[in-house]
């Protein structure tokens, strides 16, 4: 008779169960609605990124092209100061002969050339000669290789092959951190090749600067929009959204026209007599150019979240503060401003995240001092073809962005992003 | 924030200073875009204000770059491609995105935050990383250099905008309306199209516009994922900037700016309509 | 009966669709005026002759990266690709470009000379079909360089005599050579010196002297625009760009041929095309690289044809009507002091020197 205590639903099952069932059904329905998009994003977006990140550690080429050599070379003592012995050279000859046939040797050469300059042509030249080598009629492979190119007797060439013979490598990440692996362990690269750390730091500094500029310019605008009557604020909002909707390329080229030495701004200042004709301002192809153009491009991303937060601050608070004797500044400083801080936070993180990944604008107006790490990534992906290094740099950048994204979610909530 | 009549001189000064500052910032926002418009009528082939233009002489101006845009095959081809790619990408992101946003706005969704984070990520991940990832991955599965590849890539980039705008409208959505519809015997599909859809429509449309403009203005991803057959307007503009500078780009930009203004006005009108529907008075 | 007609119609439609598809050929080149010259000299006559529809893709700058990705995926969508010789070497080495037998697959000269002889040394490897000789050289604003126009490439490093900005390409190639030559290294020793760390440091030290006065360019259109705007007083770019700037746009710019660096540009056919597409690509290349066609291209752009037999046929500019021969980089008056791009040196040292160059730029 314990059943008497259970509340029953209309169909006779226990209400608790029925509720749980309906909750489960709700959850399943929600998930079913979400599933297509989730699947879509995972397949077309997350998978490609994972695939790219994998390239930053992948290093199949050496062991795939030189399977026999890698095996026997592992026994060679790299600190011996001597080239490896006959056994290694024989294996190498066999591997190389196959590789030349399928034209894999030059890929190997370019891969190893990232680590040691000169291997590319060494492998290419040797590849041509190895074609003619008769494997069964070679008394000493070591001599044969020495004759082809003396560099094969240099132990450092073999050290490089040995170091990069495993299927996975940290070499790209080391390079991305301005480090290199030598026979004496991991070391910093020469001063004249250090660039990535500097670029990362510069990217962060410039993004911070841009974010700060956006706060400075965006705050008054958002304040004005939030306090004006809706009709006029909506019209002014169009002025904020217009740049947002105008092609990025167009805005960037517009800045080029404005900022250059013989450009509109300099011409105007000369005409005003503020500066002398021979003394025009350097506004482009440097940090200034990038900061100005990117502030312009990202400003709407600051104004919109700020505006949506300020919209929720009741104007009565300011009035109350003033009625209790605070002057305008005081009321703003102690009452309004603290309440708008979440908006500053939201806008700042958004602007910062977008800024550190920028690529096209710095490329066009940044010159040499105003470029970001993204420009180097693009360079390695499409021009130097060092895809592994590009992927490693990308991975580091992605980690920074995701950390910020996490912060944003924690403090602001992703679902609180507002657009217009 | 009108100035009260009892304002002190200090307050008056500050009031006008503030207005001037705001005016300057608005100028900063809009001026670079406005500069483009006269330059697009340049009679010369460079992005420069020529002495003739500054003297407002007729020979300094011409429509030749507009002419070039409408007659040059490359530009027309690019325009056609943009118009083939952007709507398709928009349809994909809007339909998937709206469904998912409705799903996400239900009261009990497991892993809601994580799912949301994944869906917004295309907006957050630096474009160069997305682009190179897609480049390698799409090559591998045979989508690189195809129409479908570019559409999928652009659709996923548009998804966050749809999610954000549609969830925003759903926050203000009164659930008792769907319950009432169900109570009166409407099935879920009928409820969706008759009740929910009209109310969230402004959000869907504005998300769709964002998605459309994302695809229409996107250059990095299409450069990597596309090939000549999918050359879009921004791509053509980008090669134009790199290979042969011609103010045709500025003519195109002027046309696009005009389009933006039309779109923005549409959005504003839609917003007003939505507020009327929800019973809020447009101030 | 009705069904049959529909099916037949459908089949006919499908066939015409595939036929239309098969008649498309994607040719990759550099875009801009260069593609336009190829369009006029090669594509248009070829299309008129065969009915093949040619799609232009201006992706030559990323040709190696894209071909590599395409071949990884096993889906090569390009039929003929215009690349510089250095890229052709990379592509051929990696097996991404098809090997060509010049004597059987390319046209003989009108007098019966075999193609391999007609092209001579310019066929730098088995895959590369040379098309033009171009050079990277300097242009200067006549009104901004003072009374004495520069006559030597070393004027670029002479900021006392020629104060003002100059534009150089944002890569070490060419700049390092010029720096060493103007630092007193004999032309024949340049690459030996550049192969050493000290030599590289020396080149950077020379470049340091003008670093503050340089605007670095990365696209061929940059220097002409910078010169037209008066942003720079002199700058390096491809000679064809300067020709267009001076002769077609009528800008007040002069050519500085001294120290020009010759380079080659030509066709490759990607490896792994279907037999049908390969046959069509070969047919196109046979047509587009014959003696007359190469000479025709010089009507539209001032790059020297790669065949010896084409040189006497170079005539007047198609629209301007001026003689093209004196504007060719290979003209004896222009080619008094030249350098040839050293492909094998840069294949080895590119990664290393480039890393240093980028670090130097960022300093």
Query: What is the CATH class designation of the largest domain in chain A?
Result: Mainly Alpha
Average pLDDT for all residues of chain A: 88
CATH architecture of the largest domain in chain A: Orthogonal Bundle
User: Hey, which two chains have the biggest interface?
Assistant: A-B, 92 and 94 residues
Which secondary-structure class do the elements of chain A indicate? mainly alpha
CATH superfamily of the largest domain in chain A: MetI-like
Class per helix and strand makeup of chain C: alpha/beta
In which range does the helix fraction of chain C lie?
A: 40-55%
Strand fraction of chain A equals under 5%
Major sheet of chain C:
10 strands, mixed
Please provide a written account of the structure.
- The complex is a heterotrimer of chains A (420), B (283) and C (363).
- Chain A is mainly alpha-helical and 420 residues long.
- Chain A folds into three domains: 13-55, no CATH class; 60-165, no CATH class; 196-416, MetI-like (MetI-like fold, Orthogonal Bundle), CATH 1.10.3720.
- Chain A has 19 helices and two strands.
- Chain A has helices spanning 15-55, 60-65, 67-73, 86-101, 105-113, 119-130, 141-148, 155-163, 171-176, 196-227, 230-245, 248-259, 264-272, 287-310, 315-323, 328-356, 360-365, 373-382, 387-411, and strands at residues 179-182, 185-188.
- In chain A, strands 1-2 form a two-stranded antiparallel sheet.
- Chain A is flat, with a radius of gyration of 32 Å.
- The two termini of chain A are 61 Å apart.
- In chain A, 46% of the residues are buried.
- Chain B has one domain (73-277): MetI-like fold (Orthogonal Bundle), CATH 1.10.3720.
- Chain B has twelve helices and no strands.
- In chain B, α4 (73-104) crosses α7 (147-171), α7 packs across α9 (188-216) and α8 crosses α9 (188-216).
- Chain B is globular.
- By secondary structure, chain B is an all-alpha fold.
- Chain C is built from 14 helices and ten strands.
- Chain C has 363 residues and is α/β, with parallel strands linked by helices.
- The model of chain C is unreliable at 1-21 (pLDDT under 50).
- Chain C folds into two domains: 2-133 and 265-320, D-Maltodextrin-Binding Protein, domain 2; 135-263 and 332-362, Periplasmic binding protein-like II (D-Maltodextrin-Binding Protein, domain 2, 3-Layer(aba) Sandwich), CATH 3.40.190.
- In chain C, 52% of the residues are buried.
- In chain C, strands 1, 2, 3, 4, 5, 6, 7, 8, 9 and 10 form a ten-stranded mixed sheet that branches.
- In chain C, α2 (32-50) links the parallel β1 and β2 (53-57).
- Chains in contact: A-B, A-C, B-C.
- At the A-B interface, α1, α10, α11, α12 and α14 of A face α1, α4, α5, α6 and α7 of B.
